[in-house]
Amino acid sequence: MYLRRIRASNYRAFGDGSVAPALDWELNPGLNILVGENDAGKTGIIDAIRQVLLTTSYESIRIFEQDFHIQGANRSHTLSIEATLCGLSPDQEASVLEWLTFGVNADRKLIHSG
User: Fold this and answer.
1) Whole-model pTM?
2) Does the structure show a pLDDT above 50 at 103?
3) Where are the domains of the chain?
4) Which residues form the Rad50/SbcC-type AAA domain (predicted)?
């Protein structure tokens, strides 16, 4: 199993694509390297992955006000994070079902692609 694609809009440094670019990163099976200058969005990418995959660490996985993208003086009212997983075995597919949870104002979506 591997993470094939991560997309995020209006999440932290990533806008909706109209002014600030949204995140749309296609990963390869195996090793992927994330390199960039300070404040380029590297931590935002990692945290977006943690948010959508519901990390099992002891840290909180809640969305906070500061997670919503700010463009100029305006803060976004919605954000979106989407992950595409590939190469799942039947057992892995079954284990992913527990990741599909819905909260009061949260909608997590997992897309399975062959």
Assistant:
1) 0.77
2) no
3) 2-112
4) 5-69
